[in-house]
Amino acid sequence: MASIDLRKAFLTVTMDDVSTAGSVFVASPVRGWIERIDSVIDGAIATADAAITVELDGTAQSHLAFTIANSGSAAGTVDSIETAEASAGVIPGTAIELITDGGSTNTVAATFTITIRI
User: Fold this and answer.
1) Alpha-carbon distance 36 to 42, whole Å?
2) In a domain, 3, yes or no
3) Distance (Å, rounded) from C-alpha 97 to C-alpha 56?
4) The domain that contains 66 carries what CATH number?
């Protein structure tokens, strides 16, 4: 039987093209801290990796930066960052921004799941 951790909230947001420099936003509905971010892409990226950075209300969170690797990428590829740091604190209404540098090629959507420890 699967267990459910009621001390976590999960947010999802989709970026239409991880290979074009840009960003997507989602607002936190709870007080807590970001402990993990997962991405899943819907196709193969090429040429270079896509560097993903995170900002909270416009402030960079360098410990949450990660890479979507182009080598071996395909639809369904998951990349993640996990942190034990409680420094990525959020409250209801905090703007969470996921930013791609657009370093890769091919028009590929990425869906991000953000896990917030409450």
Assistant:
1) 20
2) no
3) 6
4) 2.60.120.260
How much helix, strand and coil, in percent to the nearest 5, is found in the chain? 5, 50, 45
Question: Which is it for strands 32-41 and 110-117: parallel, antiparallel or unpaired?
Answer: antiparallel
Residues forming a β-bridge with 78 = 40
86: containing domain = 8-117
pTM: 0.93
Q: Which residues contact 3 (CB under 8 A, 6 or more apart)?
A: none
CA distance 113 to 24: 12
Interatomic CA distance for residues 31 and 104, integer angstroms: 34
What are the tens digits of pLDDT across the range 34-66? Answer: 999 999 999 999 999 999 999 999 999 999 999
Q: Which three-class secondary structure state does DSSP give residue 19?
A: coil
